Amino acid sequence: MTILVTGATGSLGRHVVKRLRQAGHTVRALTRTPAEATGVPSGVEVVGGDLTKPQTLAAALDGVSAVHLLGTAGHDHAPLRTGTQIMAMAAGAGVRRLTILSPGEEGELEQAVRGSGLEWTFIWPIDLMSNALGWAEIIRDTAEVREPYANRRTASVDEADVADVVAAVLSKGGHAGRRLVVTGPEALTPADKVSAIAGATGRELRFTELTHDQARHQWRAEGRPEEGIEFMLHMWATVPETVARTTSAVEEVLSRPPRSFAQWAAAHADAFRP
Questions:
Q1: DSSP string, the chain
Q2: Phi (first) and psi of residue 29, to 5 degrees
Q3: Integer CA distances (angstroms), 245 to 125, 132, 149, 161, 173, in order
Q4: 113 domain-assigned
Q5: Residue 75 scores a pLDDT above 80
Q6: Fewer CB within 10 Å: N-end or C-end of the chain?
Q7: Which segments constitute the NAD(P)-binding domain (predicted)?
């Protein structure tokens, strides 16, 4: 079985490639810049292509049975606008099965997937635990995380669990016509996560909640643009309750519970040590 993974060098895609290759599948990794692809497992074919330019995808789709498809494209993560062309090309190439990284909002891509006649599954992780690596430098340097909205809770999921779900659906089938919202086993606040990192590293770490004005001052000092600052404040102020709801998706697909944030922190502890 030959499987094409788009976004193959990203934080999630590289895990999907690794899992599929470990399972013995022929894997084709799509990236816009093949010459810059690093860390690709031995035996994986790296091919060039751009999801926003379907004409570049013909060779990548040739002989492929299943595809993991990103629902966004570009550095701004804008919704993919070429879904209709990509679905037509995939069907014409003999692709049978799709996983699509998409929140399930009914844009052009989602409508094209539903009408494609292919076996499809939308997959959406609420939040990846790897986003906590954004704290790595500040924790190494100051042993403190300073952010507003300390009470926001998210059911973050280990990116390796999401990759396992994607790989299982692509290679074994099942869960067709569904939207799988993939979460970890619990919803945690930022302070909870910092505490777990402290336990994993054996360091004394602090979480300090900032006011709006304190956050603005800190982020301006870090050189963040004003529009970015206001976007983050608005986003964190309006976090929906749904992001704190855990699901059974990992257990349904993999017949095991999802990994906890404490387990993730233990596996990545070195990133947070000086």
A1: -EEEETTTTSTTHHHHHHHHHHTT-EEEEEES-GGG--SPPTTPEEEE-BTTBGGG-HHHHTT-SEEEEESEETTTTEEPS-HHHHHHHHHHHT--EEEEE------HHHHHHHTS-SEEEEEEES-BGGGGGGGHHHHHHHSEEEEE-TT--B--B-HHHHHHHHHHHHHH---TTEEEEE--SS-B-HHHHHHHHHHHHT---EEEEEPHHHHHHHHHHTT--HHHHHHHHHHHHT--GGGG---SHHHHHHSSPPPPHHHHHHHTGGGG--
A2: -105, 120
A3: 12, 19, 18, 17, 26
A4: yes
A5: no
A6: C
A7: 7-102
140 and 69 in a common domain: no
CB of 156 within 8 A of CB of 129?
Answer: yes
Angle of helix 226-237 relative to helix 212-221, nearest 10 degrees, comes to: 140
* 113 shares its domain with 148: no
**How many domains, the chain?**
2
CATH number for 205: 3.90.25
Average pLDDT over residues 244-257: 98
Q: Are residues 134 and 268 in the same domain?
A: yes
Q: How far apart are CA 239 and CA 171, in angstroms?
A: 34
pLDDT digits (tens, 9 = 90+) for 135-165: 999 999 999 999 999 999 999 999 999 999 9
Q: Is 162 contained in some domain?
A: no
Does residue 142 share a domain with residue 63? no
Q: Are residues 150 and 192 in the same domain?
A: yes
Are 48 and 32 in contact, with CB atoms under 8 Å apart?
Answer: yes
- Nearest alpha-carbon partner for 267 in 93, 175, 129: 129
Domain of residue 64 covers 2-125
Reported residue count of the chain is: 274
Give pTM, 2 decimals. Answer: 0.94
Q: Is residue 115 part of a domain?
A: yes
Mean pLDDT of 93-107: 91
